[in-house]
Design brief:
Elements lengths: L4 H24 L7 H24 L4 E4 L4 E4 H19 L2 H10 L5 H12 L2 H9 L18 H4 L1 H5 L1
Antiparallel strand pairs: 1-2
Helix pairs in contact: 1-3, 1-4, 3-4, 5-6
Length: 163
């Protein structure tokens, strides 16, 4: 889960630009190649996508992904800024380039998943991870709790309160 509104806005801008670009490219297709080689290539692309998605979910920005366009393996932390650079013109067109630029800067830093994992490893308590998530502002800096009600046991664990 992303830490802070800035990260959410950046990821939203990235998705918006990707969808827009893919839809525009799909509209430009006139005569797609339907040979048996194309079917094999589609299957290979799907397998690469599935593997990259699993690796990204498992290792975040440290995942070693296969870049379909260059056929090289590189960390997501390297590929993400390159993707953002390719999408920046689309971002300008859609009015979200600023959020893409902020996301690009964030790829150089630690991310929310690492912070959450570190917190859990240090405390061995999921409630501490939840508290962390409620105390982060859009810059990713910890703030005094924005939700003091989370200190009430009945709101943190409703099942325990009912027993």
């Amino acid at each position: 889960m992303p830490l802070g509104l800035e990260a959410v806005l950046g990821l939203t801008a990235l998705i918006e630009c990707l969808v827009y670009l893919l839809a525009r490219e799909k509209d430009c297709e006139i005569d797609p190649d339907v040979s048996s080689d194309a079917a094999g290539a589609d299957r290979a692309r799907l397998l690469i996508l599935q593997q990259n998605r699993w690796l990204a979910a498992q290792f975040g920005l440290n995942a070693m992904l296969l870049d379909r366009s260059t056929h090289r393996k590189a960390p997501a932390r390297v590929l993400a800024p390159e993707l953002i650079d390719r999408l920046i013109d689309v971002g300008r067109e859609l009015g979200c380039a600023e959020y893409l630029q902020n996301l690009k800067v964030r790829t150089r830093r630690s991310n929310g998943a690492v912070t959450q994992e570190t917190t859990y490893a240090r405390t061995n308590n999921l409630e501490d991870v939840v508290r962390l998530m409620t105390r982060v502002d859009s810059s990713g800096h910890r703030q005094p709790s924005l939700s003091p009600l989370l200190t009430h046991k009945s709101l943190v664990d409703p099942l325990e309160a009912s027993s």
